[in-house]
Design goal:
Its cofactor is [4Fe-4S] cluster. InterPro entries: Aldolase_TIM, Elp3/MiaA/NifB-like_rSAM, MoaA, MoaA-like, MoaA_NifB_PqqE_Fe-S-bd_CS, MoaA_twitch, MoCo_biosynth_MoaA/MoaC, rSAM. This is GTP 3',8-cyclase. One of its GO terms (molecular function) is cyclic pyranopterin monophosphate synthase activity. It catalyses: GTP + AH2 + S-adenosyl-L-methionine = (8S)-3',8-cyclo-7,8-dihydroguanosine 5'-triphosphate + 5'-deoxyadenosine + L-methionine + A + H(+). By secondary structure, the chain is of the alpha/beta class. It has a single domain, classed as Aldolase class I (TIM Barrel, Alpha-Beta Barrel). 30% of the residues lie in helices and 18% in strands. The chain is built from twelve helices and 14 strands. The strands form two sheets. The chain has a twelve-stranded mixed sheet with strand order 9-10-11-8-7-6-5-4-3-12-13-14. 43% of the residues are buried. The structure holds S-adenosylmethionine and iron/sulfur cluster. The site of iron/sulfur cluster has 13 residues, from helix 12. The site of S-adenosylmethionine (SAM) has 23 residues, from strand 5, strand 7 and helix 12.
Length: 327
């Protein structure tokens, strides 16, 4: 079992498989993209499998595959097939923009990978295309509906962006009336590769909840697991649920159970911290298992207690883009 220096059990890894993406969401990266990593700087699939085996042997039992866009990696399904056979790994989930997932839906189901987070920040086509700077609305919407109707556990991630999509908060919520889906509203964080800078946000989780309450005064709170980053709610009579994720307010740090590894091998113990160590060269040298385990233990043993503490220490951390961190 991995336990950090604040006595928190770490059993959840967010594993980024690429920093590349076929969208250019304006809250995530600049229009021209970022300086994407060269292929030889990314873990190969064999390395990702090996790394997963090692961390699972240390007590990680949940892995979320993220990116960049995971499905831009043509070999992603090779990784998912291996992970689905890994003893001790109880939960594999994927965070995706849903542009490229279509051809893989049947196989994901066969592999038992049912937890899919779809990032969709607008239900209005023009707003969606303005935010993502691409015209993939139909494929994203259709894949999202297909995933829901085929029985996947779908959570839609919607970042509330001042001046951009807040008119879509309530229309997006309507999906939960008809479908068994969870719409989760996230606060925007300043990890956008320099697209803009900010110290505060208007649409924090309280404002989002007040906005929803103005239309649905009878929503009620649901029990959530202690380590959940979202507070979850239901509107009476609606099939689905909704949630808010205070990613910028950071009310959930106290029970954080997660570790991040970027596509280039950086170990990140808090979103608001700098990488503790890079594992890529260690993965390509001798005594891989022993050395990776040692570095993971060291990183987990020196985590910031909260995102605020980390931010205080690493002042220029906001120069990063989410596409290289993995969300
Ligand atoms: N491409 C995939 C996607 O968009 O779902 C996976 C990678 S993306 C970096 C992972 C998550 O990070 C997404 O849910 C996205 O909305 C979120 N994200 C990206 N930039 C963000 C920001 N500045 N603030 C808050 N969340 C952000
Ligand atoms: Fe790509 Fe996801 Fe970033 Fe959007 S949020 S640009 S889909 S990595």
């Amino acid at each position: 079992m991995l336990v950090d220096n604040h006595n928190r059990e770490i059993n959840y890894l967010r594993l980024a498989v690429t920093d590349r993406c076929n969208l250019r969401c304006n809250y995530c990266m600049p229009e021209e993209g970022i300086n994407f990593a060269k292929n030889d700087k990314l873990f190969t699939i064999d390395e990702l499998v090996k790394l997963s085996e090692i961390v699972v042997s240390q007590g990680i039992d949940k892995i979320r595959i993220t990116g960049g866009e995971p499905f831009v990696r043509k070999d992603l399904m090779v990784l998912l097939r291996s992970l689905s056979k890994l003893d001790g790994l109880n939960d594999i989930s994927v965070t995706t923009n849903a542009t490229l997932i279509g051809p893989h839906i049947d196989e994901l189901k066969e592999l038992g990978i049912k937890n899919i987070n779809v990032s969709m920040d607008a239900i209005n086509r023009e707003t969606f295309e303005r935010i993502t700077r691409r015209d993939h609305y139909d494929v994203v919407y259709n894949n999202m509906i297909r995933l829901i109707t085929e029985g996947f556990n779908v959570r839609i991630n919607f970042i509330a962006l001042e001046g951009q999509n807040t008119d879509d908060i309530l229309p997006m919520l309507e999906l939960t009336k008809h479908y068994n889906v969870s719409v989760r509203y996230l606060e925007e964080m300043p990890f956008n590769g320099g697209s803009k800078e900010f110290q505060t946000i208007k649409w924090d989780f309280k404002t989002i909840l007040e906005h929803i309450r103005s239309e649905h005064p009878d929503y009620y709170k649901l029990e959530s697991p202690k380590t959940s980053t979202s507070m979850n709610y239901k509107i009476p009579g609606f099939k689905g649920t909704f949630g808010v994720i205070p990613s910028f307010s950071r009310t959930f740090c106290g029970s954080c159970n997660r570790l991040r590894i970027s596509a280039t091998g950086d170990v990140i113990t808090c979103l608001y911290a700098k990488a503790s160590v890079n594992l890529r060269d260690i993965m390509r040298a001798d005594d891989v298992e022993e050395n990776i385990k040692k570095e993971i233990l060291k990183a987990v043993g020196s985590r910031a207690k909260t995102g605020f503490e980390a931010q205080e220490k690493y002042k220029d951390v906001f120069s990063n883009s989410m596409t290289s961190i993995g969300g």
